[in-house]
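so the lab meeting is tmrw and i was supposed to have these ready like two days ago... anyway. pasting both below. for each one the top line is the aa sequence and the line under it is the structure tokens. i havent really looked at them closely yet so no promises
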Amino acid sequence: MHINIPGLRNSGPDHWQSLWEAAYPEQFYRINQHNWDQPDCALWTARIEQELQQFDLSEVVLVGHSVGCAAIVNWHQRFGKRVKAALLVAPSDVDNPDYPSYITGFSPLPLQNLPFPTIVVASTNDHVVNYSRAKHFANCWGSELVTIENAGHIEPKSGYGPWDQGLELIAQLHNQTIVPKL
């Protein structure tokens, strides 16, 4: 099972996470937060923990976007649980002094090696995270780094709706084939 952990304001209908859920409802599940506009780490990670109890974690690939990535690494640090793998796309730099103050509790971002396979996907011109910071996160977490040139925040307004490369990365992590049909 692939569990989507969206970022701030959730992922709209044109976002790759939403498109994947619509195309593959038996393979993708979204964890919905109670407050998408003011992410709170304690509440978000508790919700992740609550929702994941219905799944066999050894078969779960977490798919985070933006602050959803920070939620995943904070969830792991808080609860100490392992999943099969995680795809961390455009991770937010919650430690940046200019980071929005209405997103609370995610800093300091855990930078310990994650005990499950991870891929960090980073853009060279993401306004939410400097590329060098994304590389640093990948290194600290023990992640494979996949770089996309000039992809913005890897979201619909940056040209990322259907995103076949993301499906291929998930398949790589999950050791299965998802044939893009979008």
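ok protien two:
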Amino acid sequence: MFDNLKRRLNRSTPDQEGRVPPGQYVTEKFPVLHYGNVPHYSDLEKTWDLRVWGELEAPARFDFNQFRSLPTMRITTDIHCVTRWSKLDTDWEGVQFKEFLRHIPPLKPEAAFVLAHCDLGFTANIPLDVLMDENVLLAYKYDGAELTPDHGFPLRLLVPSKYFWKSAKWLRGLEFLSQDKMGFWERYGYSNHADPWKEERYAE
């Protein structure tokens, strides 16, 4: 019975061919996965900010209104979770990472990696060149509405080319680094590269 269910879940329709990485099944739901509590915020205009520091000419800080005044874009993309679900044609809105760089002090030449810092102590590391993809966002809307707390309200990183744990929820800071530094899940045995097409789920 389980084998039959697994075969059904992994069957792609013709329009999905080439879009579902190996070992994944397509879901219409948007599963919620996280470790620990979900942070909740009050009076964001006074208490929330986003900070950048590290290998750039000067640190910078955006309060809630400053960040929400930045230019936005909307994308439709597929996402893939390490727990084997994929959701196709998801709709997101936020600040494109490449656009965000235009609003902070210039990066130093040695900047090559970014460590995303999130509430509750979570971090995620991503090479800078990956974040320069056109569809990488600092996202705050999903399917036309504000993110729910479970999905990262008020801000999450969206990196569709990687397994979804790299799309860190509850984002509060971006640290630019000259050398890579393991994030929270990577320190607990997850792959540092997280490429769904190579099934880079866990460290060797």
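from a quick look at the 2nd one: The chain has a mean pLDDT of 92. The chain is about 15% helix and 30% strand. will dig more after coffe
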